Amino acid sequence: MGARVTLKGTDKLKVVLEGKTNLSAVKTVVKANGAGLQTKAQRNAPVDTGFLKRSIGLAISDGGLTATVEPTAEYAPYVEWGTRYMEAQPFVRPAFYTQKEQFKRDLNKIVK
Question: Average pLDDT of 29-42?
Answer without folding.
Answer: 97
